[in-house]
Amino acid sequence: MVQGDPAWVTGLADEMSRPVSKDLDAYDETLTAQLYEALPREHLARYAAQTLARDPTRAQRLIAMQTGPWPDELAVAVLDAIKALAERGTHAFAVRELCRSAMPSMPATFAERVAALAETLENTNLIIAATQLADTLTFRREMYEELR
Question: Which InterPro entries does UniProt cross-reference here (predicted)?
């Protein structure tokens, strides 16, 4: 990264992020996290989306590293992860953290999708978390509209 060429770290992050099998998580999480920190911001969302699809409970660090507006790919991955975790009936804390982390950066255009997802949830705590995210996105969208 000192040379300003992210190609080497992207290739290594691709290799380290690839699970060897469904049963074995063979990548070194500490090393991989350090590689993620060296990635350009525009590449980081892809790794966060992949991690969310593989194991949403392990994606929080990557989500927290996402500064600025999220690409749609990441927003969709977060919604899919919330739905998957809610269907399992476990990891309510992870769902709340995903919702909290999404508040400042998820595109405001996702407000309706988040609200629709909140209506499908059964756990009161998850409903509250998703509704707060939808309300935040709606508020942000309305503020953007007022500023135009």
Answer: DUF5691
Residue length of the chain:
148
Please report, for the chain, how many H helices and E strands are present, in that order: 8, 0
111 alpha carbon, distance to own chain's centre: 15
The set of residues, in sequence order, having a beta carbon less than 8 Å from that of 145 and lying 6+ positions away, is none
**40 CB-contact burial (10 Å; exposed 0-12 / middle 13-18 / buried 19+):** exposed
27 pLDDT more than 70 = no
DSSP per-residue string spanning 80-141: HHHHHHHHHT--HHHHHHHHHHHTTTS-GGGHHHHHHHHHH--SHHHHHHHHHHHHHHHHHH
Q: Supply the pTM of this predicted model.
A: 0.81
Q: Number of C-alpha atoms within 13 angstroms, CB side, residue 141?
A: 13
